[in-house]
Design brief:
With 310 residues, this protein is an all-alpha fold. It has 14 helices and no strands. Helix 2 packs across helix 3, helix 7 crosses helix 12 and helix 8 packs across helix 12.
């Protein structure tokens, strides 16, 4: 009687019949199971793409029952073959399909939580005309905290269901299997992409803002902006640039003062040398003009001869 029953589709596809299966080598068995899972993949893809009325499929819906019906195989049997080849149950194997859409679903879910983030950024930019790195770091952290807070505690179940998974364990496993990262890493990456889009929009927004008047003082230096620009001809970008510019001017002024002092001292030395040489020249001329008497003057006139006898 059993011999007259039609061979189920899964056995026709795989060749895993009661008679043939014990005779298969490990390689032949693997190929047979691959053929079965390939067909299961095709049926799963068809089920996920098939339109269904709104609200008919709950977040715990899975096409594995329909697949088993189409193949004529028990769910436990399909799971056993799937685990043998991949380590995954049939449910977990089918979860790869909704996991492929996780990035888009996280983007939609996080986007709804961060819908007013751009407006909050606009109110906080002040007089900035280009976003600074510390501004970006701060708002990335704020966005992540908003998303993380929305799935803390019991909210994790709602989070998993919003991403079309029956529970958190299956969500984590499917994400790691499909994307190679944890669901938290995928979430962080997606949130950063969303925030970067906000940053780009904010940069465009700031380009259209009127140019603000320059501050009276540069940063926190106490240096007047108008005087600095008048003296140096440019607007500095940081307090460090202000101090470097002022220090360069002081160094230049000190060098000029030192050079001026050196020149004055050299001029005074030359004047003293000139005076000394002039004095020496005048003394030499006096000696030559007086006849070379050794400086004692002319000899006295001779006394008369008779004077000695008087």
């Amino acid at each position: 009687m059993n011999q007259n029953l039609p061979i189920p589709m899964w056995q026709q596809l795989s060749g895993l019949t009661r008679e043939a299966e014990p005779k298969m080598s490990d390689e032949q068995r693997d190929e047979a199971i691959r053929a079965l899972l390939k067909k299961a993949d095709e049926l799963a893809a068809a089920e996920y793409s098939r339109a269904a009325p709104e609200g008919e499929r709950s977040f715990i819906w899975n096409p594995i029952e329909r697949i088993c019906f189409r193949l004529g195989i028990a769910r436990s049997k399909l799971s056993a073959y799937c685990r043998e080849l991949t380590g995954l149950s049939a449910y977990e194997w089918a979860d790869r399909y909704p996991a492929k859409a996780l990035t888009e679903r996280i983007r939609e879910w996080a986007g709804s939580l961060l819908s007013n983030l751009l407006d909050r950024m606009k109110r906080s930019i002040g007089n900035m005309r280009s976003l600074k790195e510390d501004f970006k770091v701060t708002w990335r952290e704020r966005a992540l905290n908003i998303v993380r807070d929305a799935r803390k505690g019991a909210a994790k179940i709602c989070w998993a269901s919003a991403l079309k998974f029956a529970n958190l364990a299956r969500l984590r496993r499917a994400c790691l299997m499909t994307h190679g990262v944890t669901i938290e890493e995928l979430e962080e990456r997606t949130v950063h992409q969303l925030v970067q889009k906000f940053f780009d929009e904010l940069e465009e927004h700031m380009k259209g803002l009127p140019e603000p008047p320059p501050p009276r003082y540069l940063f926190t230096t106490g240096v007047e902006t108008e005087k600095f620009v008048r003296d140096f001809g440019f607007m500095p970008k940081s307090a460090e640039e202000v101090w470097k510019t002022l220090q360069a001017r002081r160094d230049r002024e000190n060098q000029e003062a030192a050079e001026k002092k050196r020149q004055q001292e050299e001029k005074a030395r030359q004047e003293r040398q000139a005076k000394l040489e002039q004095a020496q020249e005048e003394a030499k001329k006096r000696q030559q003009g007086e006849g070379g008497g050794g400086g004692l003057g002319p000899p006295p006139p001779p006394l008369p001869f008779t004077s000695f006898f008087q």
